[in-house]
Amino acid sequence: MDIGRIEALALRPSLAVPPERVERVRAIAFQGLEGDVHADPLSPRQLLLAGTDAYDAFALPPHTLRENLLVDVDTSRLVSGTVLQVGDSVLLRLMFQCEACGHLDAHQPGLSRPGLSTRIGTRRGMLARVLRGGEIRLGDRIRTAGAPLPAWSDDWRERIVHVLDTLPPASVITYKRLAQLAGVASSYCRAFPGMIARLGPRYAGKAVPSQSDIALPRWDGHGLFDPAPAERLFSAEVVP
């Protein structure tokens, strides 16, 4: 079922530069967008979809929301786990709504009303991973495709618990890797010891500092995002 179209595309080669508008991008399966700083096989935040309705509602200058795909869809209504087909072949797995952090306020020069991160609420955009690669072009149609995959929570704390629950037996995960896999900034690592302690004894010792000398193997996140067999991931029908 068609739900919208690509209205604009952008890549961000590094965090030090603003997004650059492009006419087409190459999506790489399980990696992200070629040439984009957020391309990372171990991240749930490989690319961001933002809606034109949010730009219209808040009178935002181009690229304010730092999105890769600008779509004529209300992204606040998109559901985690949904698989979208973009263009002829690309499949995206929707992960969770992007939180409107304070960094957003630093990228709104000339706006008459401050505090965009507070006002925009759940309309910042939806984060996604690439299931099937290919080329995405300006004007490409966006459709739902196949059965949904498991949903991820918008709450970062619940995502932390999910990662810890997926940890293989007799292994540990570093705080830095835990933040990466849960899709939160590394600054959150400071909160992990207290948060994990409050989860109870079941989670004690599962996450450790990078410099820990514990002898258990460190989990790199293998299998976390796409644990199903390849045929399950690519069973979604590609509409010509």
In short:
This protein is of the alpha+beta class and 240 residues long. The protein has six helices and 13 strands. It has a seven-stranded mixed β-barrel. A three-stranded antiparallel β-sheet has the order 4-3-10, with no helix packed on it.
Average pLDDT works out at 89
Structural class based on helices, strands and sheet pairing: alpha+beta
Count of individual beta strands = 13
Task: Please give the order of strands in the largest beta sheet.
Answer: 1-6-5-9-8-7-11
Helix content: 10-25%
Overall tally of structural domains: 2
**CATH first level of the largest domain:** Mainly Beta
Question: At the fourth CATH level, what is the homologous superfamily of the largest domain?
Answer: PK beta-barrel domain-like
Q: Which stretches of 5+ consecutive residues score pLDDT under 50? A: 229-233
* Count of separate DSSP helical elements: 6
Order of helices and strands: EEEEEHEEEHEEEHEHHEH
Strand content: 15-25%
Can you tell me the CATH topology of the largest domain?
Answer: M1 Pyruvate Kinase, Domain 3
CATH architecture of the largest domain: Beta Barrel
**Sheet of most strands:** 7 strands, mixed, barrel
Inertia-based shape:
globular
Indicate the radius of gyration in whole angstroms: 18 Å
End-to-end CA span: 12 Å
